[in-house]
């Protein structure tokens, strides 16, 4: 059953038009440096098989990370790195700029997504979150975490308000306040007890640091107060590190 | 000395006078503008000769994401080896590094103990199904080209994978560490063929004693760059 499905998909993939060919107008640039080196693959180790001379033009077909696939007037195709391609000229004589995301863009970001891992009161925790930045300082976050402990597993769904104290700093500290639901079920091998679903409030602090392009390293500590149905509330500490990207 | 000051003063006076004379036509033009033909006159006076240049960033198709399916075999410690099927989604950060999310599923068999004892059942049918998800970091340690015959050369890479995730098996979720390596070959620019071997490690006490289970998976897959 599974093999035919795979075969069909692979056949279908073969007949689909190449995703790169959908673009209507592909930019044409003129070489301004003495030469432009074309490699056989998108990486610095691939051999240079063709050189385009000054004054000749190439068509940019597609981009993969910092490498660009180009086609010459003589229909030769190869890969050129960003640094070299930025030394070519557009038809109006302007130099080509690809606008690599920089720290300035990080400060003006609107959306952010990330994954974190760490420890939640002795259990392993894996989290995914998405954030919407309202102002440079303030953002709203929603997240989902899975708890994987020795004696119990669980899920956490949370919503937070995050305040960035110094968004213009490369490593910016933040403060967060939020609430959500915690669902815990004991392991199957542990003597059966009931699953619990409780609301919690959390307060935390952390730091997010811009690394490169759209990537941010993030480390945070949160203190949870779980409003259990028992007499006492439960307090749990959580530590997480991970990384996120903005777009 | 005094005559030099006088000359400077006179020169300044002449300049100011010239300035007033030069300004007169401009004042006259302002007066004309107030009239019915004012609009036309203004256009004649300050006709823009250079059009504003539109600077456009080139729109280039960026293909940093990869999505696809894979299938193969997965050995689950004590529970036999069965076919596994999964999906993968990757984001290429640079030519050397990528982030990947995978989700897969496999069935497991009875343990030797269950088979030998005759009737004993450790798990029910639902608990025998194993599903996992992983978030991994990949490093293209050996990029290169693979040759097929004399005429064909395909870009390829050998990569190392490491990460973490969760495995659901025997009614429980287990925190899982993942290590492995894979080989990727691109028949064309947007299609990739993968062959991976990954070990999923998690702690289990299902058979009475706590131990780390190694669950080794060997898969081949197809992905599309977009």
A few lines on this structure:
The complex is a heterodimer of chains A (247) and B (226). Chain A has 247 residues and is mostly beta strands. Chain A contains three helices and 15 strands.
Describe this structure in words.
The complex is a heterodimer of chains A (247) and B (226). In chain A, 9% of the residues lie in helices and 57% in strands. Chain A is mostly beta strands. Chain A has two domains: 19-89, SH3 type barrels; 105-246, Porin. An eight-stranded antiparallel beta barrel of chain A has the order 8-9-10-11-12-13-14-15. Chain A has a five-stranded antiparallel beta sheet with strand order 6-5-4-1-7. In chain A, a hairpin with a 4-residue loop joins strand 5 (67-72) and strand 6 (77-81). In chain A, 28% of the residues are buried. Chain B folds into two domains: 2-45, no CATH class; 65-225, Porin, CATH 2.40.160.20. In chain B, helix 1 crosses helix 2. Helices cover 20% and strands 52% of the residues of chain B. Chain B has helices spanning 2-33, 38-45, 112-117, and strands at 61-62, 65-75, 81-92, 97-107, 129-148, 152-169, 172-186, 191-204, 211-225. Chain B is elongated, with a radius of gyration of 38 Å. With 226 residues, chain B is of the alpha+beta class. Chain B has an eight-stranded antiparallel β-barrel with strand order 2-3-4-5-6-7-8-9. In chain B, a hairpin with a 6-residue loop joins strand 8 (191-204) and strand 9. Classes of the chains: A mainly beta (247), B alpha+beta (226). Chains A and B meet through helix 1, strand 4 and strand 5 of A and strand 1, strand 3, strand 5, strand 6 and strand 7 of B. Strand 4 of chain A pairs parallel with strand 1 (61-62) of chain B.
